[in-house]
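Subject: Sanity check before I submit

Could someone independently write out the structure tokens for this chain? I want to compare against mine line by line before I put it in a report. The sequence has 579 residues.
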Amino acid sequence: MTTVGAAPSGRTRSGTRTERFVICGENLLTLRIVEALQRQRGDGTEIVVVVADRAGRYVDRIAAAPGVRVVEGGRSDDDRTLLAAGVRGATAVALVDREDVTNIHRALRVQEIDPSVRLVVRLFNTRLGARIEGILPTATVLSVSETAAPSFVAQAIGRNTRQHVRLADRTFVVAGRREVGDETVLCGLAANSQTGAAGGPRLLPDEGQDPADYVLALAVSRARVTDQLSRPRTERLRNLLDRVVARVRGTLTRRLARATLALILLFVAGTIAFATAGGYSLGDAIYLAVLDSAGAAQPDTQASVAVRVIQAFVTVVGIAIIPLVTAVVVESAVSARTTGGTTRRMPRRDHVVVVGLGNVGLRIVTTLRERGVPVVGVEREDDTAGAAAAARAGVPVVFGDATRERVLREAGAEGARALVAVTSDDATNLQAALVARSVQRAVRVVLRLRDDDLAARVERSMDAISRSVSYVAAPVFAAALRDGQVLATIPVGRRILLMAEVTVGRASLMTGLPVAVLVEAGQVRVVGVFRGAGPDAVLEMPPRPHRGLKVGDRLLVVATRGGLGTVLERCAPRSVVAG
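---
Independent answer below. Compare away.
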């Protein structure tokens, strides 16, 4: 076991107790959490990172961060490693290894060392996470893929996609200003007429100077949300009909459709022939055509030659077609049962192609499907858990190398609205995006890229949108370590805003100060304050700007990553000990 960096300290020169955050795991998420904590750190903040191997890919970059101490220890002496890292008495401990079992094991070890320490546990299995929170009362369980997926989905669909955030008995809506009533607007999120530091729309603008056209609004009730945000009735009816047609088309295989069409054509041809050559009325012609098509013809030697020829032809062809239709229906039913009970039809236009069905890709696919957006998955191997889960959910999956044009064409890339490439390899994601653009120049491209410099250059050169899963998830983990709760990530262009709930801690810098102290254009907006504690807390919205904050008040804020760090740092509890 070795340590790198400054030795732990219990207090600063001013006598304020040191905040100590311990992060267990060596990966890109660890590095991003360290960066997020550093943006919000005070003078008495210590960050300790526990790694299994000092030669890990990100360890040097983590150790190079100012004020970060790295503790190396193998799995065999985990308890000694955790003690050396200072988990006893730590402000919070984050367990962010890629393996769920490893994080659970370490969480249990930390709880045995110090039952009161706050835990933030990374788990992919959210069902397991709910049960883990039951046996670890101080734990907050977060899923990286579940946190990041909405950002990818929003970018794939488009920025004008509405987003709902539900909190207690209230629903907040992220939408264009024209889609909501002015009286419901809580704060502006972005103004397209202004340009921010990153070249995109200006975030959290000063609405006195330039009203935002992308806003956070309050919906008093679901009925009101529906009334305010619903589309015109004719458009809703059209969408309903489109879904019905899509459902019917989805249940028809090509062979079943052809056999059904042949039977319909036979019926129509028979009706016309009986009505013209036979001289029957339209009603009688339809009656005879139906019976003869079903093979129920009654011989009539007194009928004219034309009628007998028509009747014989329709009967013979009908007898041949009906068993074919029956066979195709049975085959379709059996096929549906063997594929998990759902018939998957490959969409050919206005769908989203998701390349890579790992943890993140699977979340994106299921989220798109829940929102009613057609989606097709692409996976290299046909025996992966993600591909099997997507197939069970009724999502068509194309197996093959997504860097080959043939595979993307099979997935319908030429008619897709977007391609989302989220494999674990940056090169594969980039190559898949380039191939997709060669198939359809206008396709919207959203990439998962870990390398920041590569991501920035790709965005500029090919008008793509890049997302790092750890970039989106790290602020959520950092806020949880600070005892904050991120309620939603709100994508705006290529950047994100965070809607969070932050508690005013004991002896924090904000105690007794008004909310207005925190508000900063472009960084922080406070949309509400929960006054009081527990179920008796009252939401003051908008908050009175000059009323002082008390310990236990909970702030409802919308902020940038840096802005949230400032809020968390200023609201963090502090205790002064005798010097």
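---
OP: Matches mine. For the report I'm noting this point. Residues 11-16, 222-232, 335-343 have pLDDT under 50 and may be disordered.
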